C-alpha cells in the first residue's frame, strides 16, 4: 500500500513543486529524506494509517521542528504533528469530500501575515469512484493549544493545484 501511494504522489508531482523528499530551505522548513522517515515515525502511526509520500518538518505547532505526518487510511486523510519524536498531536478531521484520492503536496505558508506559518494541504477527492479527482485543499493552524482548520482560508485556496500557486497567492 505504501508504494502505491508513493507512486501516485510522485506522478501527480511531475511538473509541480518538485521531487519527492527534497531538502530545501524555503520558509525555514525542511522535508526529511525517505530513509530517515521510518525511524522518525517509529510507533506513532496507528492501525490502518498509511504514510503519504513525504514528511514535513518546521516551525508549525508547539516547537520549531515539529514533524508533520499526513496519512491516508480506510477513513480518508489524516494528519498529526510529532513533537520531539514522541508526542503525537492530531490534526482535526479532514472534511468529507468523498473518496480520498491523494495528498498531492503541502506547504507551510503565512496565510494571515502574522509571521507564523499555517499549513496548506493540497488534497484531492473523487465525489464518486471513477470520476475525476478534484482539489479541495485544507488549511491547518496552530492556535497555541492545538491544530485547527481555517475554513475561510480554505475557500480561498480550495482549487489550487500546486504549492507554488499557494505561495504566490500569499506572497503579496
Ligand atoms: Ca500566520
Describe this structure in words.
- The structure is a single chain.
- The chain is of the alpha+beta class.
- The protein is 20% helix and 34% strand.
- The chain has one domain (2-169).
- The protein contains 4 helices and 9 strands, in the order ααβββββββββαα.
- Strands 5, 6, 7, 8 and 9 form a 5-stranded antiparallel beta sheet that branches. Strands 1-2-3-4 form a 4-stranded antiparallel beta sheet.
- The longest helix has 12 residues, at 2-13.
- The termini are far apart.
- It binds calcium ion (CA).
- Calcium ion binds next to loops.
- The site of calcium ion has 6 residues, from loops.
Number of helices: 4
Distance between the termini: 40 Å
Please tally the β strands and state the result.
Answer: 9
* CA-based shape: globular
Bound molecules: calcium ion
Largest sheet: 5 strands, antiparallel
Task: Estimate the helix proportion, in percent.
Answer: 10-25%
